[in-house]
Amino acid sequence: MLETRLSGVAVSPGRASGPVVRVAESLAEPPRTPAPADPAADAARIAPAAAAVAGRLEKLAAAAQGEAADILFTTAAMANDPGLVGEAERLVTVEGVPAPRAVYEAADGFARSLAAAGGYLAERVRDIQDVRDRIVAELLGVEPPGVPELSSPSVLVARDLAPADTAGLDPAQVLALVTEQGGPTSHTAILARALGIPAVVAVRGVLDLAAEALVVDGDAGTVEPADPRAPVVAADRRAAAEWNGVGATADGHGVKILGNVGSVADARAAAEVGAEGVGLFRTEFCYLDAPSEPSVAEQRAAYAAVLAPFAGKPVVVRTLDAGADKPLAFLAPEPEPNPALGVRGVRIAFDRPEVLDRQLEAIAGAAADSGAEVSVMAPMVATAEEAAWFTVRARAAGIARAGVMIEVPAAALAAREILEVADFVSVGTNDLAQYTFAADRQLGAVAGLNDPWQPALLRLIALVGDAARAAGKPAGVCGEAAADPRLARVLAGLGMTSLSMNAAAIRPVGAALAAATLADCETEARLALAA
Ligand SMILES: C=C(OP(=O)(O)O)C(=O)O
Ligand SMILES: [Mg+2]
């Protein structure tokens, strides 16, 4: 066991320790060559590999409960499907394809048929891909990729995790999350915070650490080996700060304290700790796994459920921000060399306005159903023309208040013109930092640049604050910068009128603002701008 303490970037608070479970690397597509020397013998390996995978899944299913058990039993049955095994064997014996590749191709054929069938069957595509990867891994004698089923509370260690994997984690079983890559504003980090799982990202060398157990400090950003025999320690997830629930400075200057949400659980958590509304509802988080576009009725019901805890309160619903690190299967663009600079966010809507119009219709319906005071905003707007295009469409859908996010430097520089057409703006500091510093928010190696205290970023936010004051319209921050209690005061000093954050940050940020006057905030802002 190495006696090393490793450092990374703390992204989700809390301290926890326990046994390590590693997330296996994703498998490369198996090659079609060389052809097997003895096709009959190679084909004969497939059925036992499939049976072994099915057996393990059945064992997990027997230990699980409810929906998880049903899903595992169904997946086990897929692994043993004679159609799948038979087609893979045929590819080996008739076409001379090596067994791992044959399983890969046979499963993909099934996946395509399921996708074409649509509806419930299309939702099984991921399951068949999971089965495919497990059988291929079995044939290759390696660990299957993805997050393993956890039978007891564990610390997960991964190179990186997809947002869909993180969203599916069970906070009762995942004590903490450590990744070797990833940045503080990556969506995996955001989801870990929302789930209340302590997390440290960009921990160089953690994959080489041979420790059986780890202590993870999500406040200090450190990871160190623990005694594997020591009892498991789960983080205390209660927010401690005192706050009276009214977003304001000590001298009564109002700054709304709002929640960032992506699910019903997030919305309930934000309402419980006293969020005054929602400043960012990431609608795409509802559909990270969806194989096809949800209908208007489905979207309306999903959004209404998230809005329900905020009846009578302001809620900002962001239209789908698909692309880059949040791919949605039904809005996949043509392959691009630089997805973060490509067709993502509102840019997808320019090509496919009907998808946006259906979403706006669903949002208007959900507003009526829930009684929340709903506004909409568009992600990744770059110019005032784009802002005008969006607000016209939103109003045509019957949504009275329409704003845009400021997350591209060009939009911060054009904030005055944008506020001539939009009712409000909200600064997405995660992307604004990424694009200002040309530093990928998912990359641990450049995490230092994606630091919202950087004066260059704060100067852009100051421009937005000035434009909002001049226009007499609201400007908020809904990026992760708003969740830092000290930075929250700086943002208020720069003219931001609302701050939106994960549930765990609401009380500490509310308390930090209440402890300073507006003049204090402005002084802190001046110091930070000049740092
Ligand atoms: C809030 C933001 O949007 P997201 O993190 O979802 O990209 C942001 O970019 O700061
Ligand atoms: Mg963004």
From TrEMBL:
Residues annotated as domain PEP-utilising enzyme mobile: 152-221
Domain PEP-utilising enzyme C-terminal span(s) in chain numbering: 248-515
Domain named Phosphotransferase system enzyme I N-terminal: residues: 8-124
Catalytic activity as recorded in UniProt: L-histidyl-[protein] + phosphoenolpyruvate = N(pros)-phospho-L-histidyl-[protein] + pyruvate
Keyword match Kinase: yes
Pfam family, one: PEP-utilisers_N
Compartments where located: Cytoplasm
Class of enzymatic activity (EC top level): transferase
Alphabetic keyword roster: Cytoplasm, Kinase, Magnesium, Metal-binding, Phosphotransferase system, Sugar transport, Transferase, Transport
EC number: 2.7.3.9
Cofactor(s) needed by this chain: Mg(2+)
Domain of life: Bacteria
Signal peptide: none
Sequence similarity: Belongs to the PEP-utilizing enzyme family.
Role: General (non sugar-specific) component of the phosphoenolpyruvate-dependent sugar phosphotransferase system (sugar PTS). This major carbohydrate active-transport system catalyzes the phosphorylation of incoming sugar substrates concomitantly with their translocation across the cell membrane. Enzyme I transfers the phosphoryl group from phosphoenolpyruvate (PEP) to the phosphoryl carrier protein (HPr).
PANTHER family for the chain: PHOSPHOENOLPYRUVATE-PROTEIN PHOSPHOTRANSFERASE
Protein name in the entry: Phosphoenolpyruvate-protein phosphotransferase
Annotated gene: ptsI
